[in-house]
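Annex B.
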Amino acid sequence: MKLFGKQQPLPGRHDGERRERARPAAGSRPRAQRNGFDLRSRLMMVCGTLALCSVALIARALDLQVIDHAFYQQQGDARFVREIPIATSRGMITDRNGEPLAISSPVESIWGNPKELLKSPARLPALAVALGMPQDELASRLSQRAGKEFVYLKRRINPDEAARILALNIPGVASQREYRRFYPQGEAVAHVLGFTNIDDRGQEGLELAFDDWLRGTPGAKRVIRDRRGRIVESVDLVRAAEPGRDLALSIDRRIQYLAHRELRNAINITGASSGSAVVLDVATGEVLAMVNLPTFNPNAVGTSPRDAHRNRAVTDLLEPGSTMKPLTVAAGLEAGVISVDSLFNTSPGWIPNGRYRTNDTHNYGVLDTTGVIRKSSNVGAAMIAKRLGDAQFDAFLRRFGYGHVTGSGFPGEAAGLFPSHQRWSGTSKQTISYGYGLNATPLQIATAYAALGNGGLLHQPSFVKGQKGKSQQVLAPAIADQVLHMMQTVTEPGGTATQAAILGYHVAGKTGTSRKASAGGYSRRYIGYFAGLVPVDNPRFAMVVAINDPTKGSYYGGIVAGPVFRNVMEGALRLMDVSPDNLDAWLAAQAAAEAKRAKAVGHAVPVTAVADAGTAPVAGALQ
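Peptidoglycan D,D-transpeptidase FtsI: predicted C-alpha cells.
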C-alpha cells in the first residue's frame, strides 16, 4: 500500500513472531533480580552506612572539641606546652658614692633532654668536646636521668660559648638565660659582700643578709616546644619577672681599697698570719671600710680555702689588750674615784695580782692619769680598777658594747666573751682593766672608740648608707673629751705610737699588744693593735687595726699596726677633704721642707720667704 507516496510493509507472519518472542513470559523476573543482585538496595545500604559514619565522626569531633576537650587538651599540653621561668637580675650593690660593688651579668646555661640525646649516641662525643667534659661523664649523667626531660649540661657560661655549642644542632640540646654575679672590686671587698651560689642566692656576707631584698622574683611563661626542646611559640605570660632592688652600702670604695692595700703591706712586712681593719664614721656609726687578710676572690670562690672566707673583723674573738685602758680611765673619771691630775706610783714596775703579777715593760715611776694612757701602764690601769666596784666596772664596759653583738646585722657576728662580774675570780677585774680576761671583735673595739670620739654617744654600726640604728649616751661628753685628749699624747713624742701620727692633724689613739692564749696560759705569740680617732678637735673617723701573730721584727702594736692607721687615715682625710686641725705642725713641716729644698740647690732662703712658702698652701687646704 502506498501512503503519501511512501510504500509501507504489510504486516506478516514473521513480525508477529518477533513481537511474541520480545514480550516476557507471564511470572518471569529481570535478569539482575534473577541473579540475586539488587542495585538499588545496595546503593541505599552504602549511602546509609556512609551517612552513619559521617554522623559518628561529627559526633566524636563535637565530643572531643566541645563537650569533653579538657582532658585531651591537657594531654597535648603535657607533651608540648611547658611553663618555663623567666630569669630576673639580682639587685646591684653599690658603695656610698654609687660605684658598683656587685652586679649581675646575663649568661647562658646549656641543658639537654636525656631521652632525646640518648637516641643519638653518635653525637655525644662532639657534645662532650664542646662542653669541655669527658665523654664517659656526659654519658653517665644522661644515663642516670634517662627518664627525665631536663638536665643541666653546663651552667652560667658566656653567650658566645653557648652559641658555639648550639651551632652543633644536636637534638635535645638547648639553652636558657640566667644571671651571674660579678664583683668588680674583687678581693678588696670580698668579706663584706660575701658571694652567691650557682642559683644566685646569697651565701655569705651582705649578699646573705640582704638576700630577700636583692633577689627579686622570677617570672614565668608558657611556651610550645618541639620534640627537640626548642621553643616554637610563646603561648602566654604567666607572671612578669620583678628584678631585685639595689642596695647602697655605707662602704667607701676608695677607703676600702686603701685599707686593703696597707693591711697587705703590713702583713708582708711583719710576716703576720692574718689581719683586720675597720673604719667607722664617728658621727653616724656607718662602716666606711672593713678588710681582712687572708682574703679570697668572690668571682672564683672555689679557688680559695674555706678559712679565707671568714670575716675576721666581726667573727674572730681577740683579747683587746691595752686598747681597754682608755675605757678603764673613763670608768674611773665617771665614778669620781680619780681625776685628770691623779698620781699613780707604778714603781717598781709591777704589783701583785693574787698568785700572779701585773707587769709593765718598764718602771715608769709616778704617772698621772694621762701618763697611764701615754705610757700604756698595766700597773696604772690596775690601780684605777681597784678603786671601782666589780658591778660598777662590769656595767660600764657593757654600755660600750662589750659582751653583746653590735647590732650591725652582719651574718655570724660574734658577741664576744665577757663573763658577768658574779663569775669573776679574784684576779679578773685587774686583768680586764688592761684588756685580758675578755674577748671582743675588732668591730666592737671600733664602735667603743667611735663613742669616745662622738661625745660619749654610741651608735649602732651599720653597713647601709643612711640607715640609722639605735643610739645611746654611754658617757658624759666632758669625760669623753678628757679621755680623747689624753689619748692624743699616745701619738706625740714620748707616746707608744708616734708612727701613727699624721702631719697636720691631732691623732688620738691607743696601742695594744696582747699575748695569745694557749693551753694552760699564754704563749709567746702576739696580736698588735692600734685603735685611733682623727682629727681630735672634731673626730671624723675611728679606725682599728689588728695584726695577728707578727713574726718579723717587732710585735708591738704601735710599730706593726700604727703605720697602717697613719697611711689609711692620711688618704681618707684627703679624700673627704677634712681640714687640718694642727696647723702649727703643718706650717713648720712646710717651712722645713722648703728650707731643705733651697739648701739642696745652694740658695739662701730668707726667713720671710720660708714663712710665705708655708702660708700659701694652707689657705688652699682650708678652702
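The longest strand covers residues 521-534. The chain has a mean pLDDT of 86. Further annotation is deferred to the next reporting cycle.
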